């Protein structure tokens, strides 16, 4: 299932823009920044304090976080548009009941965090009611999971970090659907640490809620006994800070064979379509909906990226009943008749060693390229006319650099306004749709549709 996203912003039209050749070929797998000192995210620690966890494990949690968090800049100056790069931390505990032990404003230093974690004690209760409702309240101020409410800083990514020793909550079966229905995955990540791997119910539950649809595997799901836990948690927190913000795109996710895990990479993609009046001048124009986000027609430099695109944008649009493909990509002939891609500065770089032409293509004089399928299961390139109105293709795969600790490139709200950005309304999504990113351009304006 897929859905169209709607968002409102001024259209920035680039007319007759000069294209500058570039000799630098972008990375096919741009890594997310791992500079914790410039990270900007909200961390909510969700800690099982039932008797199943015990005091020894609570001390381990405290020690682990005391090793990780000094690398981050802890504080409550949250406005990214003002240049602040702070990490905010909240602590929620749960046993029979869930409690917000510390709101963001209670923790302004590593000392504050250590003091709070060192005072946690295990209860006598064996019951552990997962505290996601309280975590949602700590993040958004929403007192109910069933209603939207104002979130003053919804652009900031959130890492929900769950330290669990048992899974016996009465509403356990409903929690995966809760994560599916709400926006826990919209910006940020869910990170889990299993303190009782012999409990198969807990193990299965944590694998289930951390399952990534495109990777078809659990992501950011760790065990307390791992000798790399501190390193892994720091990495996962920084992965949460590698996201697509209000570009409404999807992070590229590839397998990392060196570390034997799936990983987010620092690029975001979105499929845009046009309707109504005001056809774009060219493929660059189709992605130029804002001067504050350097979105470009997507470049595809590896089979790995092709496979990822196939997982996301090769289905049937539930609104039209039509296949997502064909759609334009950034491949085109330059003024010298050579096949080239656009880079993020709208310069050009040459076709790499990777190609994916359909048999018999390129042919004729058509100087742009589309993603299409001959067998309804794999995508291939075909050269196609560049006049978007005459060619009859109204869709284009756009991409932008992801936001990460080194960049706010994807964040329109961060770049467009000086003096802070306005409150945004929380938007809910459904099921696997949270991963699928589309946009419609109606009469030349970007529109989000729920």
UniProtKB/TrEMBL annotation:
- Record's keyword terms, sorted: Signal
Say if the entry is tagged with keyword Signal.
Answer: yes
Highest taxon listed in the record's lineage:
Eukaryota
Q: What is the lineage of its organism?
A: Eukaryota, Metazoa, Ecdysozoa, Nematoda, Chromadorea
The residues covered by the VWFA domain are: 42-120
Q: Does the keyword Metal-binding apply?
A: no
Q: Which residues form the signal peptide?
A: 1-17
- Family annotation (InterPro entries): C-type_lectin-like, C-type_lectin-like/link_sf, CTDL_fold, VWF_A, vWFA_dom_sf
What is the official name of this protein in its record?
C-type LECtin
Ranges for domain C-type lectin: 287-387
Species annotation = Acrobeloides nanus
């Amino acid at each position: 299932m897929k859905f169209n996203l709607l968002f409102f912003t001024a259209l920035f039209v680039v007319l007759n823009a000069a294209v500058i050749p570039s000799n630098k070929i972008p990375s096919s797998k741009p890594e997310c920044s791992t500079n914790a000192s410039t990270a900007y995210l909200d961390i909510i620690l969700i800690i099982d304090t039932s008797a199943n966890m015990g005091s020894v494990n609570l001390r381990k949690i405290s020690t682990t976080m005391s090793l990780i968090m000094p690398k981050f800049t802890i504080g409550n100056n949250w406005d990214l548009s003002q240049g602040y790069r702070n990490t905010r931390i909240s602590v929620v505990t749960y046993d029979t009941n869930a409690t917000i032990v510390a709101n963001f404003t209670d923790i302004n230093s590593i000392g504050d965090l250590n003091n709070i974690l060192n005072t946690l004690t295990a209860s006598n209760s064996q019951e552990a009611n997962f505290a996601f409702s309280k975590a949602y309240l700590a993040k958004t101020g929403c007192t109910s999971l069933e209603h939207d409410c104002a979130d003053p800083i919804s652009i900031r990514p959130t890492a929900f970090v769950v330290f669990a020793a048992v899974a016996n909550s009465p509403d356990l079966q409903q929690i995966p659907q809760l994560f599916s229905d709400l926006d826990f995955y919209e910006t940020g990540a869910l990170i889990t640490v299993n303190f009782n791997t012999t409990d198969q119910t807990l193990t299965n539950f944590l694998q289930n809620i951390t399952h990534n649809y495109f990777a078809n595997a659990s992501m950011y799901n760790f065990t307390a006994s791992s000798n790399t836990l501190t390193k892994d948690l720091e990495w996962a927190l920084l992965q949460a800070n590698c996201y697509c913000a209000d570009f409404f795109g999807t992070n590229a996710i590839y397998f990392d064979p060196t570390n034997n895990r799936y990983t987010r990479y620092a690029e975001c993609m979105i499929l845009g379509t046009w309707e109504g009046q005001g056809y774009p001048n060219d493929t660059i124009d189709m992605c130029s909906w804002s001067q504050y986000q350097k979105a470009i027609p997507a470049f595809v430099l590896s089979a790995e990226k092709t496979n990822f695109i196939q997982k996301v944008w090769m289905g049937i649009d539930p609104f039209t009943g039509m296949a997502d493909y064909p759609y334009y990509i950034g491949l085109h002939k330059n003024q010298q008749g050579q096949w080239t891609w656009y880079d993020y500065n709208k310069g050009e770089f040459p076709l790499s060693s990777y190609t994916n032409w359909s048999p018999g293509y390129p042919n004729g004089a058509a100087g742009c390229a589309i993603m299409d399928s001959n067998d309804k299961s794999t995508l291939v390139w075909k050269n196609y006319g560049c006049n978007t109105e005459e060619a009859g293709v109204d869709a284009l795969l756009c991409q932008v650099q992801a936001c990460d600790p080194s960049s706010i490139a994807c964040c329109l709200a961060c770049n467009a306004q000086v003096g802070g950005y306005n409150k945004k309304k929380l938007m809910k999504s459904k099921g696997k749709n949270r991963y699928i990113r589309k946009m419609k351009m109606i009469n030349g304006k970007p529109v989000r549709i729920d």
